[in-house]
């Protein structure tokens, strides 16, 4: 009896890949669609043979950890939205994949039973969220049909009993703070209502609309609403509506002073909100799929050409900053002469586009002593006094301008930024000024971060008391990035899981060093491991880290790194077991993930990166048989051609013919090329007369392919394997079984069946 009870313990309870994938999505890709995430998770579950209850448990554990670790402010709200709005949707989709409905709810229930045993984790989450975390989560799962009423009540009773022993919070200080999960769940229907309000005709009741928007700006409402919209896939339409509103308010015709100020406010609020969305969730959320012929709205033009973002360097002399000179002159006169900004019949988009040239004029006048500092103060007060977006546009240009100046020339430009960054203390501002200034200063802080660091300048932005840029500037100064990479990987490996901060560091290093550098150095670390359990853990972690840009990493790994190791005999020793088996596993996992997802789209945080040119891959791996690729020239040095099937009747079959050619797979695609070449290389290694660690590696690679394949899946990576490889593989004792032959040949093709029959007959 004791033995039986003992044997039921699952031998492995932590799954670092699932954990890291969920953390990666929660930290970097809240706006992404759920379908790709569901497919990635299912793939990992299949390849690592994870039982469903433990799989669901790992997803919840990752959410809890992400939420507990998240920096206060926007990040915390993003994580709350991810956990309570997005992950239940992901589980609903996973339920469709696992066909028995009844069983899946049972598995979810089982996962929660396991989760309740992690009392310290739940207590910490309760503390962080200032509420009964489990209660909110169970109610959400019940709403989505993931748990039955009875299971929910049972689990809640258990947790309530546990909570009695939890370390008590001091009730006084947190009593009035509303818990985030409740706020996020309430924000979700509000998003839908706001979208409806925004659909109405703006010209009918601009004041009513202004009331709604003003309400959105107060406290943390805006970040709550944006997080809820992002987690439910509504952020794009949210942004679209604000772009339309912004466009509508750019010019006014006959208007009274009152309607002019309402229009100015609507323009300003929509402009600030959109900048804030772009900085928090990435500007691709805002840009529309360009339909040719339609006029591009002002805000889209502005954000693409004039807004400084990480990794985007602007040219301050670009034509977009040099509009019509008469408009610039009148704007300079307006800023310099009037006591405050005029609003009636003001074309805001023109003012925003002219402000950069106006600032240049004003700077020159100040540098040459034409204007005194008092005049400059008056001008900057005018710029930020009514409409904060003007200040944002001015600073956007100043940031680009400062980068181009020498050390001794920067003083006045930086002082100008300083002048624009603080709020104006005056009775005469338009309504919601304080709320708008809070958003403005957070936008400016993001914009200026890089330049201030490069020029070692301090500017005090009116703070909201939160760290507005938690994941910025993570790399330690003066340390080579290779050391940082090996260090952080060693830490992660020791811990056994990746945390949000490490994910951001890995991402920064990937941007900085490039895909080849990143992948190559991490693979070197993997090949240094000598203990079996360590290498397996390293593979699970690397596989999840590679999800930062899986497509590109796979191309580098299969197209450059593996061929390099397999064709250079001085490196064969590094392919010994255990690191060799581990690398084979990693390569197959990456190949399968990229191959199954590249029919879909890259997730949004991967799109920002520079794409290597497809041409690079075409020249590396030409397909035209007249000019064999570099790789094949390396291989064909062994004289006799042992690759051709034994009987003369088969001589017509070229040694590289594979199922993919008969299925006419598009070979201009870099991934297909790289796979075809890798399998040619494998085929040639199996057919050559020398054996060594590299032949052993190829065998592990093929075994892992067979292990990960769902039976009979057509169009898998094995379709790139030349038919001639089958007869070579069967000679390897571990692979000589009919089951393996049937798994690796494409039986939908007559030639595939013929090859399989021949190989089985030869067993």
Structure description:
The protein has 763 residues and is mainly alpha-helical. Among the domains are: 16-162, Alpha Horseshoe (Serine Threonine Protein Phosphatase 5, Tetratricopeptide repeat), CATH 1.25.40; 188-288; 308-473. The chain is 64% helix and 0% strand. The chain contains 37 helices and no strands. The protein has helices at residues 2-7, 16-28, 34-47, 52-69, 74-97, 101-116, 119-129, 133-143, 149-163, 171-174, 180-199, 206-217, 221-231, 235-248, 257-281, 298-306, 325-337, 348-367, 373-385, 388-403, 411-421, 433-454, 481-495, 500-513, 515-528, 532-545, 550-567, 579-597, 604-607, 614-620, 630-635, 659-662, 670-687, 693-708, 724-729, 738-744, 750-761. Helix 5 (74-97) runs parallel beside helix 13 (221-231), helix 6 (101-116) packs parallel to helix 9 (149-163) and helix 8 (133-143) runs antiparallel to helix 9. It is globular, with a radius of gyration of 30 Å. The two termini are 45 Å apart. The relative contact order is 0.06.
Estimate what percentage of residues fall within beta strands.
under 5%
Helix content: 55-70%
Distance between the termini: 45 Å
Oligomer: single chain
Largest sheet, in brief, is: none
Low-confidence stretches: 600-615, 622-653
**Structural class, please?**
mainly alpha
Count of DSSP-assigned helices: 37
Principal-axes shape call: globular
Task: Report the radius of gyration as a whole number of Å.
Answer: 30 Å
Give the tally of β-strands: 0
In round numbers, the mean pLDDT is 83
Biased composition (Polar residues): 168-179
Keywords: Activator, Nucleus, Transcription, Transcription regulation
InterPro entries: Mediator_Med24
Main location: nucleus
